[in-house]
Amino acid sequence: MGLVVAVALVGILAWAFFSRVSTERPDPRRLDGEDVRASDIIQIEVLNGCGVEGIARSVRDYYVELGFDVVAVDNYSRMDVENTFVIDRSGNNDTARQVALAIGIPDSTIVVDIKPEYYLDAVVVLGRDYADLSPFTQGEKKR
Questions:
Q1: If DSSP codes are grouped into helix, strand and coil, which group holds residue 92?
Q2: pLDDT tens per residue, the chain (143 residues)?
Q3: Buried b (16+ CB within 10 A) or exposed e, 79-107
């Protein structure tokens, strides 16, 4: 009986290790190494595009906890955005991917609009689907 329990425990630990290693995690550091920005940490702006008060601040706190540099939080030009998306401001697809990955949205939501004068890597525009994003679903997984 002890051998069965030991084998089961080893199997569970192996599965836990494999699932942790195989799950892609966001990296808040710039991966290109050639950027001339002030920091090697990805700098983003979070904009509220859904009109729900406090959403952008909550997502800012989540990104900061992950190690990203959130330089601004504000409202988007519209409040009727359905789906959250990321705007790539630097032209570095890997950086934009890390920003999208952090909140659990697919790469297909990344829009390229390079604006080097903004000194930002990416902008996150929060839509009405905000409740499905990692900052709001992580607590549910822990329960």
A1: coil
A2: 778 777 777 777 766 665 555 555 666 565 555 544 456 899 999 999 999 999 999 999 999 999 999 999 999 999 999 999 999 999 989 999 999 999 999 999 999 999 888 889 999 999 999 999 999 987 654 43
A3: eebeebbbbbbbebeebbbbbbbbbebee
Q: Which long-range contacts does 112-115 make (Cβ < 8 Å, 24+ apart)?
A: 112/87, 112/88, 113/87, 113/88, 113/89, 114/88, 114/89, 114/90, 115/89
Taking the C-alpha atoms of residue 74 and residue 76, their distance in angstroms, rounded to an integer, is 7
Residue 137: how many other CB atoms lie within 10 Å: 13
Q: Are strands 69-75 and 110-112 parallel, antiparallel or unpaired?
A: unpaired
Total Cβ atoms within 10 A of residue 24: 8
Report yes or no on whether pTM surpasses 0.85.
Answer: no
Q: 135: exposed, middle or buried (C-beta count within 10 Å: 0-12, 13-18, 19+)?
A: buried
CB 68 within 8 A of CB 41: yes
